Structures are given as C-alpha cells and as structure tokens.
Amino acid sequence: MFSLEIECPPERLDLLVADLWEQGCAGISELEGGRVRAFFEDASDGDWLRARYPGAIARREDERDWVQAARDLLQPIAVGARFFLVPEWRDDPAPPGRFRITVNPGLAFGTGVHETTQLALEALEDYVRPGMTVLDIGAGSGILSEAAALLGAARVIACDTDPDAVAIASERVPLIFVGSVAAVRSAMADLAVANISPEAIVELAPDLLRTLRPGGILLVSGFETNEMEMVRAALPGATEIRTKGNWALAVVHSAPSRSRL
C-alpha cells in the first residue's frame, strides 16, 4: 500500500476528493494546511497517479488498516449550539438539544470539519426562522440544506453544478437541481446561503442578491480573512463579518420593500 499527499485549495477540495475515489483510493485523510493524504492498495499504479497529481508526495505505507485509520481521524463534532455531525459509519447519538446530521466524507465537499462549513451552520442557527424559504447555492453534500430544514425552514431549494453533488445532496433535501444560481427565480428566498469560493462569490454576486426577497438575508462563506475586501466590494451590503481561524463569513441584508404612500 502507498499514499499520496496532495496540496489543494479549499474551493477545489470536493473535486479532488471525488476524483481520488474514482481512481480507486482506499481512504482519504484531511491534513492541515490545505492538504489531503489518499491511500491506494496497488503500488503498481504509483507512477500513473503521480503523473495525474503533479507535485504529490508519495510514500510506501506499512501494512495496516489504513481505511480504518483514516476513518478514526474523523470524530463526531459539535457545531454551534444546535448541531452534532457524525460520520456515517458511527452510531453516536446526538447530545440533548442538538440535531444529528450524518456526514459521508469523500463524496462531496461539506463534511462539517472545515471552518467555512461551521461558520455557515452557526449563521443558519441565528438567521433561519420557521416557515422561511431557504436557497442553498453550491450545495455540495447538502449539509447546509439539511440544517436549514431541521431549523424549521418550510421550503429548502438547493442547486449545484456538479451532478455527483446533486445526487448526494438529493438524499438530504428533495428540491435540488443541477445548475447555477442564474437559473433560480428572482425574489424567491427569504434566506440564501453560499459556501463557495471568493471568485465565485464575486462573479455570482448579482444573482445571489437577485434571488432574495425584500428584507432577505444572504450568507456567504468560503473565503479567507485576507479576501474580505474583495467580497465586500462585490457585496457592499455585507454589514457583518464572522471569522473562524483564517476563514470568514459575510452576512448581507437586502433592502426592505418600500411601502406605498
């Protein structure tokens, strides 16, 4: 057995992990500093895999259950005041007062371990109100969609441009489609959440705002603290910035409707 240590920017992590599974890896561990370690059974594929992932660092591993070792690194985690995220192979019950959400690392971005996902979950706790319509843009594994539903949203609509992510998220939320936010009807959401890259936030900013009803709330995350000004420039209504480590989330309030005289 051998492993590859691969460096990857956060916004590409979901695509990398999905590709590693397609190439037959036996397990994946998320490391610090934007790196992952992927384990492979057949060392004969080493040269081909190194060519596929330039810059990856390969090493031969001792004979042990690396799949289980990789799983052991991911423990249940309490997020915010309401959520308890548990890997699918564990049966840990949620502590009293918390919602249990099952996560399947490796299938799509959004295991709850990353700071941006935690920021988004905590913000949903504060802003989702019963009866709301919530839009999850770039839904990934669907964790944020499920969280919004658990918090009382009456309707949750999710979208993603990755068909694999849509297939996974559809197990959590019934209203999901393959496509961009550009295809979403205007003024349909009380709250929209987008945990995506800063470049995508800037590019999609007009559509993100367009989907909100008057007085609606937009939560955007997926960017580092040193990228806040770029996000603020695209979303000048970002009046609140939350941080966790080097990562940030912006809260944007759309203008309320004007009453007629």
Describe this structure in words.
The chain has 261 residues and is of the alpha/beta class. It folds into two domains: 2-72, Alpha-Beta Plaits; 109-253, Vaccinia Virus protein VP39 (Rossmann fold), CATH 3.40.50. It contains eight helices and 14 strands. Strands 10-9-8-11-12-14-13 form a seven-stranded mixed β-sheet, with helices on both faces. Strands 2-3-1-4 form a four-stranded antiparallel β-sheet. A three-stranded mixed β-sheet has the order 5-6-7. Strand 9, helix 6 (163-169) and strand 10 (175-178) form a beta-alpha-beta unit. Helix 7 (198-210) packs parallel to helix 8. The longest helix is centred in the middle third of the chain and has 13 residues, at 115-127. The chain starts with a strand and ends in an 8-residue tail after the last strand.
* Structural class by secondary-structure content: alpha/beta
Give the count of structural domains.
2
- Strand arrangement, largest sheet? 10-9-8-11-12-14-13
Distance between the termini: 74 Å
The mean pLDDT is 85
Order of helices and strands: EHEEHEHEEEHEHEHEEHEHEE
**Residue share in helices?**
25-40%
Assigned CATH superfamily of the largest domain: Vaccinia Virus protein VP39
CATH architecture of the largest domain: 3-Layer(aba) Sandwich
> What fold name stands as the CATH topology of the largest domain?
Rossmann fold
Low-confidence stretches: 107-111
Tell me, what's the shape? globular
Largest sheet: 7 strands, mixed
Q: What is the count of β-strands?
A: 14
